[in-house]
Amino acid sequence: MLLRKMTLAVSLALSANVVFANCGDIAGKVSIVGNEFPAIHTVAKGAAACATDKLTVTSNLTADHQKINLAGLQGDPAEYTTAIIANSSIIALMNDDVIRPLDDLIAAHGADIPKSNLITIDGKVMAVAFMANAQHLAYRKDVLAEIGVEPPKTYEELLAAAEMIREKGIMENPVGGAYKSGWNLAQEFVNMYIGHGGEFYKPGTAEVAINNPQGVATLEMMKALTEYMNPDYLTHDSNATGAEMEAGNTALMNMWGSRIGALMDDEGAEEAVYSNIVVGGPMTVGGGTTPATTLWWDGWTVAKNASDEDAVATFVAMKNGTSPGILNDETMGEAVWMIEGYTPAPVNDGVFASIKAGSKPYPMLPFQGLLHTALGDNLSDFLQGKESAEQALADTEAAYTTAAKEKGFLN
Amino acid sequence: MKHKTFFWFVLPSSLAMLLFIFFPILSVLIQSVHVDTEQVIKEVKNCGPFGCETITSIDQEATQALERENPLGRFAGLTTYLDRRHLAVDEVHAAWGSTTGVGDFFNQLVNLPFYKAMSFTLAYTFIVTPLVIIFGFIIAVAVNGAVKWVRGPLIFFSLLPMLVTPLVGALTLFWMVDARGIVGNALQYLASDPNLSVKASTPLTWVMLMVYGVWHSAPFAFIVYYAGLQSVNKDTLESAMIDGASRWEQIRYVIIPHLLPLTTFIALMQLMDNFRVFEPIVSFSAEAHATSLSWAIYNDLGGETRQLSSAAATSVLTILGISILLLPVLVRTWRDFTHK
């Protein structure tokens, strides 16, 4: 096994130089900062293939990228010439105006980038997307077959199935959920609130408006789900819920598309478990038609404070890092690539189903990060039964309003 | 040492402290009385792989023009200190007006982030600090009384909790108290409650954090006391023995008075450290049950939008809190100094 992996790695490394060498005559410095997961590594490797004696390519990929990318792009010249970001994290970079519009670079060097990959804000291209992600159902087909139920299409069906699994004594806590207090919990609220058709703000303003019937229904549904979760759910992030599923303790959960591969492979779980994990589509809730999930893209940007030479080099290298040339048997299943020549594998069905079902993208608003933090801090009291749903929502609104005033979004 | 000699002796370190401690704190203070300039918002069209929509976005030109006028942001005075996330003056006042009793008022109070953090921080500080001193003392006396050749290994093992990186130590305990971990399972068995979960219960989470705090800090008290025990006057001890003092009486009347100044030192260090409790909350994922001022600072800076003014205000409040805690000790030191 190890030997096979090693030979594969060697052959990949050898082929890399052959496949990727299409960067033209560019010089300068390319420095990448981004999140750390296999697909991002592939992109960074693809960009690094452009390196020559005139062009240096370095990368710093870390799960803490959001803590350093803003500071790393603010300097002049910028420490990083490109940041790989998602639709939520681009906001912090845009709020501080540290990334440059790409229109001139696209005209000169990127005419072949598909239009649908361009992230256009106010008529200017600010980022180039290369992969899509979404949360959707992942379930154990053997367990659902045992209780004789079709994969749930709504959260109400999921609750009913969970009750049957518990009643039959198959699993004590059949539902998994990344409900860790903080970012994860807030993300689940955002999903469910969108599923209930809720609007986060009064139209056209930064004034929050979540203390409404949809907000209460959202929290009620989240609490109903937690009744079927491991009692430690407030400490479980998506790593921990994934581990719970691999350990055979849960049968139903809302999971990130980018993490399904790790659940379905033969590492970390018994065969009876991993061979039975399959993906479904996103679920709706409360009779709504918009799925209770959000769509995400990952993309790359170019720093505003990079010299023109470095900006061109960065653009060309990153374009190469997200070109059809990076796709091969090994990298194909790492993500839902928005790259020509990509053929989806079964692990990616959920993300495609989410896009097809008309899911909404995660809100790209300058103050959404503040609301996300406020949600993450204030919802756990309700889930623990310490206060009412209305009180939790009122606390969230008050926390957000205080923060938004401090950041200058509200007066 | 003459005061003049002393002055020249500490001058280099004083300068370093001025540069690396005083000025940064000053900048935090300035940050805390300012908030960001008004962000000019405009509606823009946003297109991406999932279609187009109209969103609000920051009007960079207009906002930057405002920022050029006020590079520090808007002066806010004490607004940030008094807002809901800090001292919450208005909210506390409203709670006081509408309260039905002390319990209800307390519940409303700990629903506010600052007071929620303070309730845990103070409980942690005042429970962990004495326990650390007591356990450290007991371990030190026990090790000191052991046969010479086992002392070396004993000291090493007693120091281990302090040598282990806080995050690693906390994570180890975190996994042990998991419902499927060795401690968690044992507790379920002892309480004959298969659904008992330490991580899901606020009181048990507090206990777990405090147990970790004592486990982690007791070695510090131990090593200080152990060093102190080496300098106990042998003559006094022997004469106490001749006078027929029992082992307990020797400890009570000879050793404890001798170690008292060290206790002040340990209490000082521990009060400061425990008031800034942080790592266990993060590594135990205990945010839902227990927060602290340091955690609030981390949370303000860790979100997708960094909230610098709020974090700065919390930092200043932390410094004030520590100063108040240390006041009795500082007053005593000052008196000792002037009495000379």
If you had to describe this structure to a student in words, what would you say it looks like?
The complex is a heterodimer of chains A (about 400) and B (about 350). Chain A has about 400 residues and is an alpha/beta fold. Chain B has about 350 residues and is mainly alpha-helical. Chain B has a two-stranded antiparallel sheet with strand order 1-4. In chain B, strand 2 and strand 3 form a beta hairpin. The longest helix of chain B is centred in the middle third of the chain and has 33 residues. At the A-B interface, helix 3, helix 4, strand 4, strand 11 and helix 16 of A face strand 2, strand 3 and helix 14 of B. Strand 4 of chain A pairs antiparallel with strand 2 of chain B.
- Annotated CATH topology of the largest domain in chain A: D-Maltodextrin-Binding Protein, domain 2
Q: Low-confidence spans of chain A: pLDDT under 50, at least 5 residues?
A: 1-20
Assembly level: heterodimer
Structural class of chain B: mainly alpha
Question: How many distinct helices of chain A?
Answer: 18
| Level-1 CATH class name of the largest domain in chain A | Alpha Beta
Give me the CATH architecture of the largest domain in chain A, please: 3-Layer(aba) Sandwich
What is the strand tally of chain B?
A: 4
The major β-sheet of chain B equals: 2 strands, antiparallel
Mean pLDDT of chain A: 89
The gyration radius over C-alpha positions of chain B equals 26 Å
CATH topology type of the largest domain in chain B: MetI-like fold
Order of strands across the biggest sheet of chain B?
A: 1-4
Order of helices and strands of chain A: HEHEHEHHEEHHEHHHEHHEEHHEHEHHH
CATH architect. name of the largest domain in chain B: Orthogonal Bundle
Count of separate structural domains of chain A: 2
The first-to-last residue Cα distance of chain A is 61 Å
Helical stretch count of chain B? 15
